Amino acid sequence: MSCVLRITGNKKLKINKLLQIIPELDTYWIKGEPRLSNHPNGKKHLHTGANHCISDAGFDNFELQKKDAINYLITNRIQIIKIQELKGLKSLYLDFGIEQRDVAMQCDSFPPKLIKLAGELNLGIEISLYP
Asked: What are the strands, taking DSSP E only, across 15-85?
């Protein structure tokens, strides 16, 4: 997953309600539950949340991730609005996973169309760099 719709909330955010809007969530977690199922006494989730894959383009294909995100926002506008209305929602944003290039300074940008669509839907945008 290189670009995901990341949804976070407090304990009032109900995953079953979220699954009614997006049945094909890739992963989800509940506040207070163990972060790792094989470590039940380990660290706990600090919030309830979910990830939904927006683009399967590789970390090295940021351009395709952006195109996929634009198409997703246009096609799934109603679902995103429904998510915004859920009780307990804290944040909703697009997280673009891209490769960290071996350069003195890395600059990556978003097209105005993507920024406009995300803004209209009250979505944040994040870049996560991966080696």
From this structure: 27-29, 48-55
